[in-house]
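note to self: dont lose this again. the chain is below, predicted strucutre after it. 176 aa total, dont forget to put it in the shared folder this time
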Amino acid sequence: MMVSSMRCLALAALTLIGLPAIASAQDMQAGSVTGLPVPRYVSLKTDRVNLREGPSKEHRTRWVYQRAGLPVEVTAEFETWRRVRDADGTEGWVLHSLLSGRRTALVAPWSKKKDENFPMRNAANEEGAVVARLQPGVVASVASCTNAWCRVSVGNINGFIRQERLWGVYPNEKVD
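---
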């Protein structure tokens, strides 16, 4: 019995040591259908997108998104369906034709402070003049990201915001 317990502990230790390597490999995988990276960010194409429990129209609708341009993260692919996760962590399946490759991001959706806003600047540095103050949850179109700053637009206002303040781009991701 002692040997059995030792084997279990050794196996558990090896499994834990191997997890970071497995997670890194998963981060770099290509989608089984598109060949595009999984995970990756995309946006909703229309103002009405059903989030389903499984990858078919026979599965129950869990949620209906009503915000075109909302960023979601593709976490899996199956035939014409994509499993997505939103900024709240809700996951489900969406028909691929309802998704767009257009990059958007949410401004600090995790912020809970009342009246908090985030500066959008005219240059990719803290010294740039503030051209707008963005509230948490605002959807911004992402033009590019480099060196921890993203060039974004909200309506007809263009500027730069720190990449860490956006949900819809990965840390240090370069977007062209």
